[in-house]
TrEMBL record:
Source lineage: Eukaryota, Viridiplantae, Streptophyta, Embryophyta, Tracheophyta
A GO MF label: protein kinase activity
Protein name: Protein kinase domain-containing protein
Matches recorded under InterPro entries: Kinase-like_dom_sf, Prot_kinase_dom
Membrane as UniProt keyword: yes
Pfam families: Pkinase
Gene3D superfamilies, sorted: Transferase(Phosphotransferase) domain 1
Organism: Vicia faba
Domain Protein kinase: 1-124
Nucleotide-binding keyword on record: no
Domain of life: Eukaryota
PANTHER family, per database record: OS07G0415500 PROTEIN, RECEPTOR-LIKE SERINE_THREONINE-PROTEIN KINASE
Length: 126
């Protein structure tokens, strides 16, 4: 029997694939996205300004969808964070988090690579 919190578990757990340290990388990415957006990692219902439903899906899908727009970092930030933060560093943090939540564990970085990307403030290749 597998136990874990829905939304934080890597696909390997669900599909009974070999479990490696990459499952922790996946969970880390989810936690980072949750902290930046202030949104639950599982199914989300987001209302627009007029009360209409604008999105119904997972946090990962929502962030990836928003990433296509010009000011995507500002759009996903939790209002509690505001825009007084360094948006270029937020951009890097979110891009690293999105690499961490890749479904294919072979594409995900390991934690050493994550730390290196964050310490070097590297822009992650899209």
């Amino acid at each position: 029997m597998i136990r874990g919190t829905r939304g934080y578990m890597a696909p390997e757990w669900i599909f009974h694939l070999p479990i490696t340290s990459k499952v922790d990388v996946y969970s880390y990415g989810i936690v980072v996205l949750e902290m930046i957006t202030g949104k639950n990692p599982t199914l989300m219902n987001i209302e627009g300004d007029g009360g209409e439903m604008t999105y119904n899906g997972s946090l990962i899908s929502w962030v990836r969808e928003k990433k296509r727009s010009q000011c995507w970092v500002e759009e996903i930030l939790d209002p509690a964070i505001g825009t007084s933060c360094d948006l270029s560093k937020m951009d890097i943090l979110v891009r690293v988090a999105l690499e961490c939540v890749e479904e294919d564990m072979d594409i995900r970085p390991n934690m050493s690579q994550v730390v290196e990307m964050l310490q070097n403030n590297e822009r992650v290749v899209e």
